[in-house]
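Need tokens for this chain, all 56 residues.
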Amino acid sequence: MEQEVATVGLDLAKNVFQVHAIAADGAVLIRRKLRRAEVLRFFAGLSPCLVGMKCA
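Here are the structure tokens for all 56 residues:
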């Protein structure tokens, strides 16, 4: 059974964004870097979830 993303943390930057996604039980599902052009496509592929953003 594949777990569904419950929460995404997004660290905003100029060109590269760091993404961490976890399941409802706290299991880490995704840790990766996204280029600016990839961010919209990444979120379009997710089910609705809580998103927290950090910017400097």
